[in-house]
Design a protein that fits this description.
The structure is a single chain. This protein is mainly alpha-helical. The chain has two domains: 63 residues, Alpha-Beta Plaits; 181 residues, no CATH class. 70% of the residues lie in helices and 5% in strands. Strands 1-2 form a two-stranded antiparallel ribbon. A hairpin with a 4-residue loop joins strand 1 and strand 2. The two termini are 17 Å apart. The model has no long low-confidence stretch (mean pLDDT 75).
Length: 254
């Protein structure tokens, strides 16, 4: 597993097993620790069905209080980063269309993708399996549709005459988005949670910082070249990333 979508996929696959008490993800090292009350062969069986390269390492007996975590703190942090990401989705998609920047529009959809993943994680508390899968499918299709529309618009702008996007708006809004994602990253790192909704979200947000930097670079290149192409190239790359994320989210609905 290497992203929050795959973490959510695993959580939803295993959630029907009553013996499972907690799941702790180490995304960087591709490691999952499953805390369960009794031996259950279905755990390993379900994980292998996901085709993520599952391999059982070891079984250790621990006390229950060793894996308790402060869920209210996690929930509060996830709500915070969700709100920040959704707010910047609105800001970036609005300014993207106004400034004619596909880089900003694409980055806004990446922000929306983040908000959807965080929302799905929060939705997992107290919801039925059927409802969670339905939300995952709807979110994935919605995100994929937006990404495909974005890519088609990029193609249209490549082959037609279009004004050079407003590089000032691109750079200023992307810097603000970079600051917002940096704040999210700081909050997630500050939590120091071992229950890796936080750790996975941290990696996801780190990727967003890279994307924000890419849009800033595109704005600078638009300024230097007075050309629309740097913006369209960066927009295409981000739309492809968003599409990939949509397919991962759709896996949650299976």
């Amino acid at each position: 597993m290497d992203c929050p979508s795959e973490e959510s996929l695993i959580r939803m696959k295993l959630e029907g097993l009553s013996t499972i008490k907690s799941l702790v993800f180490d995304i960087e090292n591709r490691k999952l620790t499953v805390f369960h009350s009794e031996e259950n062969e279905e755990i390993e069986k379900y994980l292998k069905e996901l085709n993520l390269g599952t391999e059982h390492k070891e079984t250790i007996i621990v006390q229950q209080d060793e894996f308790k975590d402060d869920l209210s703190v996690q929930s509060k942090l996830l709500w915070t980063v969700l709100i920040i990401n959704f707010a910047f989705f609105i800001i970036e998609i609005s300014t993207g269309f106004i400034s004619k920047s596909m880089g900003l529009v694409a980055d806004s959809l990446d922000m929306l993708a983040d908000a959807l993943v965080y929302g799905l994680s929060l939705w997992a508390v107290g919801s039925t399996v059927i409802r969670k899968k339905k939300v995952a499918r709807l979110s994935g299709y919605f995100q994929l549709a937006l990404a495909l529309l974005g890519l088609s618009e990029v193609i249209r702008r490549f082959i037609s005459f279009e004004e050079v996007p407003d590089f000032q708006t691109m750079i200023i809004v992307s810097i603000l988005a970079l600051v917002a994602n940096s704040v999210c990253l700081y909050l997630l790192q500050k939590s120091k949670s071992k229950e890796a909704h936080m750790k996975a979200s941290m990696i996801f947000t780190s990727n967003d910082v890279i994307i924000n930097s890419g849009v800033i670079l595109a704005g600078v290149l638009v300024l230097l070249t007075q050309s629309k192409y740097p913006d369209l190239i960066v927009g295409s790359i981000v739309f492809l990333i968003v599409s990939q994320g949509a397919f991962r989210i759709l896996k949650l609905g299976k």
